[in-house]
Amino acid sequence: MALGAVFFLLSAEVPAVADGLVAHHAQYVLSLGRDSRNSQVVGADGLMVVDFRDTCDGWATDIKLKLVMSVEGGENGTLEMTQTTWEAKDGKSYRYMVKNSNGSGREEQFRGEAHIDPASGKGKVTSDLPTRSEMALPEHTLFPIAHTRLILEKAAEGESVVSAEYFDGASSTETMLVSAVIGPAEKDWQGLPKKIPELAGKSSYPIGLAYFEGEGKDGGVPDQEQFLQLYDNGVLGALSVSFGTVKVRAVLDSLQLKPGGAC
Description:
This protein has 263 residues and is mainly beta. 5% of the residues lie in helices and 51% in strands. The chain has one domain. It has a 15-stranded antiparallel beta sheet that branches.
C-alpha cells in the first residue's frame, strides 16, 4: 500500500527550513467510498493520523490507520496499519517499518532501508522483514517525500502528466512505476466538511495516481489506483484508496502545524 507519497505539508504560514517542508500533525476521517465494488461491505469507519517531524538531516513520518468495516450478515472486519519512515532531505537515503493486521491475529511486517548513490543515480534496498533480501533500485528512483515534491513542482509548472519510479517499502522490496494525472487548480476547494484555517485561500489539484508493478510497468492495468486532492502548499485534502474490492475515502478533519526542529 502506497500511502506515504501524499502525506507531506508545505506552508508559508510558519517558519520553514530550506526545502519548504514543515512538521505537522494531521487527522483524517475514513469512510466507505461511494464507488466501492464489494456488495458485502455496507459501511466503513475509521481514523488515520499522520505525524511528520523534522530531524534536521531528514524527515520522520509516522502514519497510523484503523478501519472497521461493516459486513452484511456477518461480523465486522478490522484493518490496522502503522508505517514509520525516515527520508534524508537530499532524497538519497530511506528507512521504513510497516505493520499490517486484519484483526484476526494475522500480521505482516516489512522493514528495511534503501540508499541511492548521488553520482550514478543507482540504488539498493536491503530488508530484514519479512525475510532478509537485497534488490537493486532502478536509476532515478524516488522515495515518498521526493515523489510528493516532484508532483507539486510539475503541477506548479502546469504539467498534467508525470511518471516516476517509486519506492516506499510498504508491501515489497520492488519499485513501482507511478503515473500521475494532474487536473486544473481549484481555489478554496469545497470538498472538506469543515473549514481548515491553514488552507484558506489555497489552491489544490485533483490528482489520479496509477501504480504499476512487475510486468504491469509495460502499460498494463494498474495494480492500484489512488485519487486525491492535493493543495499547492502540500496538504492532502482527501484521498480515495482501494483495499481489494473495497474503496475507502479519507478526508482531512484537523491540522496542526508544528515549529521546525532546532537544527
